[in-house]
Structure prediction request, 154 residues.
Amino acid sequence: MDTKNKSSLAIAILIPIAVGAFSALFSGKMSVYANLNKPSLAPPGIVFPIVWIILYILMGISSYIVWKSDDPDNRNALRIYALQLFFNFFWSIFFFRFDLYLFSFIWLLAMIFLIIAMIYKFYRIEPLAAYLQMPYLIWCLFAAYLNFMIYSLN
Prediction:
């Protein structure tokens, strides 16, 4: 891999990491999670940053694979990727800063729909790019369960 490709891959990985970092920064009181009534399947708070950094790295690699492809639909696929990142950015702000648990759940359902659309587009371009997004989809489905249960219990 030449220097240009390494730089492009690094940027592709840093974009979702930056989105997550800025979202966490603007979310403010993420310690709120410790004081919420949670379902029995809720993991400890320390699990979330570990999982998210892994997911953001996979997202970046996946987007890089699509970006470097010659497929004429790669721009449309990357637009959906960017839109779901937008939704990703705002979810934790709605949930943690504003305590909008029901709204956050609905927002997350829309985000899941976008993730599914993105995976479909990525698969048509390069199946590996879609497979790298599957842990993200699974985690967001689990997050939807947690979000809904937190809404119900609080």
